[in-house]
Amino acid sequence: MSESVEHRILVEELSGWVLRELLENDRGYLRVDNESYRNSEYSKLIVNGFRPDVFAFVNRSNLLVIGEAKTALDIDREHSVMQYRSYYDTCILNSGESYIVFAVPFACAPRLRNVLRNAAISGNERIKIKILEFLCNK
User: Fold this and answer.
1) Which of 1, 40, 83, 133 lies at 20 to 30 Å from 74 by C-alpha?
2) Which of 4, 2, 93, 114 is nearest to 102 (CA)?
3) Residue 24 falls in which region: left (phi positive, over 0), alpha (psi -120 to 50) or beta
4) The pTM is what?
5) Top-confidence range, 43-47, 49-53, 96-100
6) How far is CA 65 from CA 14, 37, 84, 135, 138, in A?
7) Contact call for residues 63 and 97 (beta carbons, < 8 A)
8) How many helices and strands, by DSSP H and E, does the chain display?
9) What would the mean pLDDT of 53-78 be, rounded to a whole number?
């Protein structure tokens, strides 16, 4: 399935945020599901049955970052909820700090929070859930 322009913008914003805020601008750990990585080792990366839009694992600290961009139409699809659960279950297995970071269009965060709550997915001391909202009219 080809990705929409909106989804590509969300992935770009998401990967930039993860790089700046969680990886201290160290690109060596960052994998992004976009054109520049599709023909690389990232194309084989599957996390518990799904390929996240953004992935990073820092060995020295066991920091795990899984990022997912969702358009308004995809937030509550069954496939999306299965992804959320899969990523959460992966974070539970990580011995270090984990982040699941979502990028959604502006004003969609409440809807995603509701979907996560209904799926019994919530953050705790080791698993942080972050929802970022972006304007997608570039």
Assistant:
1) 40
2) 114
3) left
4) 0.92
5) 96-100
6) 11, 17, 13, 23, 26
7) yes
8) 3, 5
9) 95
